[in-house]
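Hi U.,

Before I forget, here's the chain from the pilot set. I'm dumping it here mostly so it's searchable later in email.
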Amino acid sequence: MPIILIPIIRLLTQPHASRADAQAWKEYTCVACGGVFRTLIEAKRARRGATLEEAEEQAGIAVINAIAMTVPIRACPNCGCYQQDMAAVDRERKLWPAAVAPLAGMALAMAAMPAQANPMLWGAGIAVILGGIALLALLAQYNLNRDPEAARMKAESLVQQNLLEQTSPGDDPVIVAHGMPRFELDGRLKPVLVMIAGVLLFAAADAALWLSGAPLNLDCRPVVAGPGDNVRINFATPVSTAKGYWNAHAVVHISNAAELGITDTDLVTETNHDSWGNALVGEHVTNSNADLWAGLVVPNLPSLVGRTLKIDAQLEVTYPEVDDDARTFHEVNRLVTYNTSVVMAGSGAGSRQAAFSWMSMIVGGGMIVAGIAMLLQRVRGMRSAAPQPQIHPVVPMAAADNDLL
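Structure:
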């Protein structure tokens, strides 16, 4: 079913809409001073139904659930202590943005792989991953009750706005301030260790390649190649083309084939074959650099192990180039050549290295993501284990039929 039809079908099958508004007090017994305070919250939810009664019922259920799930981060007016569920919600809100750092680090490191091709970018990616893990570990232990006096002053402001009330006094806040709970997160070490192990595994393929002493061809992918491998040769000079489109016909020769005992000079080659047609017509487009490449299959001859292949690659390239008006383009035809040398490792070495690299990235990256998920799950568990506040509705739910919702 096309996605665009879903809202249309919903309107036809659920013509009635209802919105429910409600206010309620959430009442806490402070874990620090023993005082009782309550905080005012409100929620609004809209739902649709086949009948008005069904819509009202669904909206009522939704607004009740919203009030139950809402955790206002408001400290006790007496002592300035935030409660356990508030500390958990605050940590979770901080952890989600911080979780972007390890993911961004993985993207950086993957863009630089193999590390030998761009060691600075790869190192920066690993550093961002480790820094993100350290930040997550710190935020998982963030002490919301680090400044009870400031929290108490903020609470007094909310009291004046009738959003917070002290219904029963607690112990002396000066005495309580010395024993303010930090709400330590149980089991926080395991997710951090899982993430660190994931980083080690993520980097294992490149580290192993570095230590293996295998000959590296930094302008090729994979950087380790052997007889029988598919090798992609990256040309040194990019072309400036509309949206990066280009296609080519590739011709690749091994200039020292006779010296190496290679009799079949018709190498299997491949290259890029973009098709742009009318995709650029009428659009506001700009030129961007596109990297040219040509691929070949290395002859599967055991005698090539340890030898050097001298490669002469040639591309007959066609690509669109944007005109000055940025709305039209013209096609450019160029002949681009590139010469390089490829040192052979063992048979199939490139295929094995590529497989190991992918496994390392997938499993290691998966462990990092799993560690983040475990940490978030423990923070949610801390919230679930917190003493539950009492809920006292102050405004009856109001529901109204509104087919424009």
